[in-house]
Amino acid sequence: MFLKTISLRIRKSFFFSKKNSQDSIHRPLESTSLLKRVFNPRQLSPDFISDEAGFSLVELSIALLIMGLIIGGILKGQDLLESARLKSVLTQANSYKMAVTLFEDRYNALPGDYDRASDYIHSSLQNGNGNGVIEGPGLASGGRGQEALSFWSHLAAANLISSPGKPPSSGQAHFGQGAPKAKIGGGFTVQHNVFGEGHHWFVLGEAQGTSGLTPLQAMSLDEKADSGLPKEGKIRARDGKNVPKGSCVTAQGKYNGHYKDKACVLYFQF
Fold first, then answer.
1. C-alpha–C-alpha distance, residues 116 and 104, integer Å
2. Are 135 and 120 in contact (CB under 8 A)?
3. Is there a contact between 215 and 263 (Cβ–Cβ < 8 Å)?
4. Which among 259, 230, 232, 254 is positioned nearest to 244, based on CA atoms?
5. Is-contact 205 175, C-beta < 8 A?
6. Residue 28 reports pLDDT greater than 90
7. Other C-beta atoms lying within 10 Å of the C-beta of residue 144
8. Domain coordinates of the chain in residue numbers?
9. pLDDT category, 17, cuts 50, 70, 90?
10. Residue 230: is it exposed, middle or buried by C-beta count within 10 angstroms (0-12/13-18/19+)?
11. Among the listed ranges 83-87, 91-95, 195-199, 212-216, which one has the minimum average pLDDT value?
12. What is the mean pLDDT of residues 175-204?
């Protein structure tokens, strides 16, 4: 009986030790299986996949749409700014036309040409010769050609336009110093008989007759307020002195839309 009891205990002990040994053998296999599941994307849980996945096609489409709207808004904003600048030029030219009309009604003379400006407007003004023509090249501050520059000081002293700045005592004036700056760049001067028709014109461009506008800008202004043809009407255009012939106005009498740089001097009749 005693021996039988010892035999049973030995068998149980062997059984449990064998079981434990088998468990220890299978544990590495279980660990290996777990690693395979972790590193195999097909066996990952849906929650894990949704947290680590990239953008969906819908999200990418929305992002591209937003980027397109932003870029389109920037380009549209630039177009609006350009349009506003061009409209400001027309407003500026029209205000000068109105100022000339009021000056003529008040003093029965043209600004710059008025021969009693120092007596009836301000003692610091230079008088014109009163012959009905505003003489001079536009920015000359002395001699017979000063009337075109005095044009602006006469209007400003009569409180019909804002001051174009103080001109130099001699030599050449500049935009902002005797003649008004244009809001699109360059400035305005005055010239008589530009096209052989005996009219006075506001000249929009850079100093010395160089270009102040691109052909497309000049055409836009012309179309907004006149015929849109550079050789006809009360708004006209010419090539600037600093560009090849035909850069602004073609031989066919049209604006050269293929030339993208500044090439035009624009004229407004008054």
1. 13
2. no
3. yes
4. 259
5. no
6. no
7. 9
8. 86-180
9. very low
10. buried
11. 83-87
12. 93
Structure tokens that stand for 31 in this block: 């660990």
Reported pTM: 0.70
Phi, psi of 77 (to 5 degrees): -60, -40
Given pLDDT bands bounded at 50, 70 and 90, which one contains residue 40? low
- Give CA–CA dist 89/20, Å, rounded: 97
Using one digit for the tens of pLDDT, what is the confidence trace for 138-149?
A: 888 776 678 999
Spatial contact of 178 and 164, defined as CB atoms under 8 Å apart: yes
Give the Cα separation of 210 and 241 in Å (integer): 5
Higher pLDDT, 111 or 58: 111
Give the C-alpha distances (Å, rounded to integers) separating 45 from 32, 38, 56: 18, 10, 18
Tokens, residue 80: 């609006």
126 closest CA partner among 153, 96, 156: 153
| Contact yes or no for 82/183 (Cβ under 8 A) | no
Alpha-helix runs per DSSP H in 56-136:
57-107, 117-120
Q: What is the pLDDT of residue 76?
A: 60
Q: Which of 203, 209, 187, 196 is nearest to 263 (CA)?
A: 209
In whole angstroms, what is the distance from residue 176 CA to residue 196 CA? 29
Taking the CA atoms of residue 81, residue 83, residue 85 and residue 86 in that order, the dihedral angle to the nearest 10 degrees is 170
For residue 34, give the amino acid letter. L
